[in-house]
Amino acid sequence: MIAIPKFFCNQYLLRPCVRNVFQRNCVATFKPSRQLKFSAVANHLKSFKLVTRNVTISSNSTPTLQQSKWIGRWLGTCAGMCFGAVVIGGLTRLTESGLSMVEWSAFGERPPLSQEDWEREFEKYKQFPEYKQLKKGISLEEFKFIWHMEYGHRMWGRLIGAMFVIPATIFWKKGYLNSALKKRVLIYGTLIGCQGLLGWYMVKSGLEDRFHGEADVPRVSQYRLASHLGSAFVLYSLFLWSSLHHLLPAKVMEVSKAAIKFKRLVHFSKGIVFLTAISGAFVAGLDAGLVYNSYPLMAGRLLPEDLLALSPAIRNFTENPSTVQFDHRTLGHFTVLLLSTVWLLSRRVVLPSRARYAANAVAAMAWVQASLGVATLLFYVPTPLASSHQAGSLVLLSAALWLSHELKNMKYIPK
Ligand code: HEM
């Protein structure tokens, strides 16, 4: 039996007959009669160990196919849970619940159990600007609702932590993880921790005593909201990418120069989807979805009158709600145009069949997402539409990631 790590196949671009066996597995096995065919491969694998008389070339750096599947399922579950966290976080923001818990503890806050506990918690909330300026006079029942929304979001985050750490420890101990995976696990774990800290750092900005006057609405900093959402998107993307790597490995293909250009365009589009999503976070953070509720014009104009109202001009891009909405619309339009071009080009180049499905999904989702955005605007940001638009951005990003993952192993080999 001969076992060969997948990265080796990618690196050496093995002939198609050999590749087909390798693509699906991190480790491929062969009967002794076929060994000779792979002797050339074996020669390259000097750092691997010859074990049995059937020539087992094994590397402690490679999980088996079965182990790889389990790792893929685990990372896929973490990705799904991150998706859930983004949706719950969005609902928490849209129901104005995010500032109801005024304290934070890394290992979990104890929920109030008795009537006295609840009243004490409510009293604490009353000391902060959101209650004083926005929610004065709400009942204890209303407070309980917003408190539970925020509590649910925090606990979901901790559940992700547990869902990540427990299997990671088991897989690590059982030797399922090679050194590259161990590094990744450490990075992902750190990112999960940072995500929680960033969440609290964001909430703190809404609790500070810095809101004065009627027009000054107590809310979290749009910069911190965008960072919290952005890092959630990064974490989700890493989990999804690694899960695809284990469950749906990309085909190794020799392709034309045009296909390589297409691959670069897909990478660029993925970046633009991410950028558009971050600009959306600024719209959400400044409640900029409520400043111009007409489409395609903004109060009858292509460019809003107050586009550069703040000085210095650079501040407008992150602090002026009109400019922030304008930028997000423009980026949204550009995203749709770009992804439609990707779809058109995908018909003209030779691609793996799954990549074609992914290109269809990306283009269709871009149109759905833009339509949801327009509807959110025209109906003055109702919670169900705004939440669907937010979830749609993750679906769109997932489709873009899937497409670029399918193209990952396409290589151009000059003749
Ligand atoms: C097609 C690419 C688009 C993507 C990837 C995208 C993504 C996003 C994201 C991630 C948010 C933040 C949601 C949140 O944190 O709650 C957002 C908010 C928003 N987007 Fe988009 N968007 C796109 C297109 C559009 C278009 C074309 C429009 C309208 C012309 C639009 C209007 C809005 C509005 C009004 C909000 C604020 C909603 C709120 O306050 O919750 N979007 N977008």
Automatic annotation (TrEMBL):
Example of a GO cellular component annotation carried by this entry: mitochondrial inner membrane
Major localization class: membrane
Reactions it catalyzes: Fe(II)-heme o + 2 A + H2O = Fe(II)-heme a + 2 AH2
Pathway connected to this protein: Porphyrin-containing compound metabolism; heme A biosynthesis; heme A from heme O: step 1/1
Residue ranges of coiled coil: none
InterPro entries assigned: COX15/CtaA_fam, HemeA_Synthase_type2
GO BP, one annotated term: heme A biosynthetic process
UniProt keyword annotations, A-Z: Heme biosynthesis, Iron, Membrane, Metal-binding, Oxidoreductase, Transmembrane, Transmembrane helix
Membrane-topology annotation of the record: Multi-pass membrane protein
PANTHER family for the chain: CYTOCHROME C OXIDASE ASSEMBLY PROTEIN COX15, CYTOCHROME C OXIDASE ASSEMBLY PROTEIN COX15 HOMOLOG
Protein name: EOG090X04TT
